[in-house]
Structure prediction request, 342 residues.
Amino acid sequence: MSPRQMIVLFLLLPATAFAQLETALVLQSTSVVEYELDGVIEASKQATLSAEVSGRIETVNFDVGDFVREGEVILTIRDNEYRAGLQKAKASLAEAGANFQDAIKDFKRSQDLRDQKLISQAKFDKARANLETAEARVAAAQAAVSEAQERLDHTVLRAPYSGVVVERYVEPGETTQVGQKIMSGYARGQLRVKVNVPQSLIAAVRQHRSARVLLLEGNASVSVDQITIYPYANPQNHSFPVRIKLAASELPIFPGMLVKVAFAIAATDRLLIPASALVQRSEVNAVYVINHQGRVSLRQVRPGNRLGDQIEILAGVEAGEQVALDPVRAGIELKAQQDTQQ
Prediction:
């Protein structure tokens, strides 16, 4: 048999003899209708550390962009004065303690003499008052030691939690004052989005409480852990502040970034097909439909939104029909079927 005869025989074969086409069902799916709003990334846990004592700065160990672990030393202040203050407070405590012991002994002697009626009640009351005064001075001296120790501890500024430095306000050699800003930072991985939802949409947002956070770069999305809707509207623009807690992500997300927040506001039934099944020729959109007899037909459709790797079909097919996933092979199959009918 010649090659030409073999080709003619191949074209005369019924459609079922052609290589099996890979197909997919047209699915009817209930999906959400989303409304996108602008949002801004912010840190859930952020802080600005301030000086709690005054003094000359000796060291600053971190700068903008550095990662700091919880408990690491951020800054040290010259502590000579505060160490001297602590020693003075401890000396005063020791003196007060000695006076207190003397007052105890004097009180006990006065108590014995009073029991023997050898001193007056007034002298006994004075001994008791001296004891109470000495005890109070011990308490005051202990408080002074605690206060001096705390001031000394504040000459070393430590990170309250692990995070990234975003601002540094001082340099070594400067003299700080109480309350002066030292450094700002935020905890990495604990981010949220702040977005203002118009009054017209807030009821739907409350009902569905579902959203996706979309990055402007790379079409990536971030999962949402929690949605908090503020119980009041902004009187200037009548929008409701909404705070969205983000799940942990390896994506490059930083406070201050602009993102899109897609809120679910309704549910609708959609007909969906794989995106690979859609044929686009100029302004015509179509799919190859395979019926129960295995016959192929090209049918024009009206596509809607693209949802991941699927496309919504607004008209042209019905749920349960089969469409070819490989339009090129389906086109060859359709041509073969047409030739066998001639």
The two ends are 23 Å apart (CA to CA). Residues 1-19 have pLDDT under 50 and may be disordered.
